[in-house]
């Protein structure tokens, strides 16, 4: 706490708790009435307790390298590794047998269903060829001399028998379908 010392008329007043009122009145009269007596006003701070080292001084700074304590001994780590590996292999082999069973079942179902799916795909293919042929007949019914499956009565393939199926190109096959269907079929790999 700061103390105020006032020296006036050869008397010194200190702003302790006892003289605080007197010092304030004296200050007021000096400032307001402008006394002609010489006045010395000074402030002094209380002495601050110096922060000093403890008795005997500070302990020495340890700057030597300190190694961490080992988590476990090498034998414990190797033993843990062997146990974990053994348990892991046990569960792997158990799971591997189940996976083999599921894969055999999956392959068997694919083998059993493949002929059926191929037959359905061939059936849909022939149905679409028939729809294309019917659409051609309907579209060209007013054209004289037009015979379906030929070019103005001339067969397109002269060396092929009547019972031989000539597979049409993609454009011929999807001639009556929207363009998006042809695009999706031709560029199917873009969707992978």
Automatic annotation (TrEMBL):
Keywords: Electron transport, Membrane, Mitochondrion, Mitochondrion inner membrane, Respiratory chain, Transmembrane, Transmembrane helix, Transport. It is a single-pass membrane protein. It comes from the Eukaryota. It is found in: Mitochondrion inner membrane. GO terms for cellular component: mitochondrial inner membrane; respiratory chain complex I. The keyword Transport applies. The keyword Transmembrane helix applies. InterPro entries: GRIM-19. Its main location: mitochondrion. Accessory subunit of the mitochondrial membrane respiratory chain NADH dehydrogenase (Complex I), that is believed not to be involved in catalysis. Complex I functions in the transfer of electrons from NADH to the respiratory chain. The immediate electron acceptor for the enzyme is believed to be ubiquinone. Involved in the interferon/all-trans-retinoic acid (IFN/RA) induced cell death. This apoptotic activity is inhibited by interaction with viral IRF1. Prevents the transactivation of STAT3 target genes. Complex I is composed of 45 different subunits. Interacts with CARD15, but not with CARD4. Interacts with STAT3, but not with STAT1, STAT2 and STAT5A. Interacts with OLFM4. Belongs to the complex I NDUFA13 subunit family. PANTHER family: NADH DEHYDROGENASE [UBIQUINONE] 1 ALPHA SUBCOMPLEX SUBUNIT 13, NADH DEHYDROGENASE UBIQUINONE 1 ALPHA SUBCOMPLEX SUBUNIT 13. This is NADH dehydrogenase [ubiquinone] 1 alpha subcomplex subunit 13.
């Amino acid at each position: 706490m700061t103390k105020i010392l006032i020296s006036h008329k050869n008397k010194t007043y200190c702003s302790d708790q006892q003289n605080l009122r007197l010092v304030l009145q004296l200050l007021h009269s000096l400032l307001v009435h402008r006394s002609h007596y010489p006045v010395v006003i000074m402030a002094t701070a209380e002495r601050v307790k110096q922060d000093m080292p403890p008795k005997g001084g500070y302990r020495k700074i340890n700057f030597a390298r300190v190694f961490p304590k080992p988590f476990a001994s090498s034998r414990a780590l190797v033993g843990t590794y062997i146990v974990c590996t053994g348990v892991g292999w046990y569960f792997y082999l158990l799971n591997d047998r189940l996976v083999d069973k599921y894969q055999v079942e999956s392959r068997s179902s694919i083998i059993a269903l493949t002929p059926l799916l191929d037959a359905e795909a061939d059936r849909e293919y022939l149905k679409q060829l028939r729809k294309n042929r019917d659409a051609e007949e309907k579209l060209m019914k007013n054209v004289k001399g037009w015979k379906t499956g030929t070019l103005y009565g001339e067969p397109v393939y002269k060396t092929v028998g009547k019972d031989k199926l000539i597979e049409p190109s993609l454009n011929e096959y999807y001639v009556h379908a929207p363009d998006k269907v042809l695009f999706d079929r031709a560029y199917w790999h873009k969707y992978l």
